Amino acid sequence: MATVLRGIVKHLEGMSDAAIMELNLPTGIPIVYELDADLKPVKPMSFLGDEETVKKAMEAVAAQGKVKK
């Protein structure tokens, strides 16, 4: 599912392949876009959730790629 979501965000934001791979998309947190009549974002994406929940979810995703020592 993360691959599909990254593809949608990449398209909407006009991001490069490298940039989308660096984007931290928290698992289980809905993304909100406001779109114009041409389906172009009028504001940057935002996350639907309180700041602390989103922060914890982003930290969990970031930690998935780290090696435990």
TrEMBL record:
GO terms for molecular function: intramolecular phosphotransferase activity. GO terms for biological process: glycolytic process. Gene3D superfamilies: Phosphoglycerate mutase-like. This is Phosphoglycerate mutase 1. It comes from Oryzias melastigma.
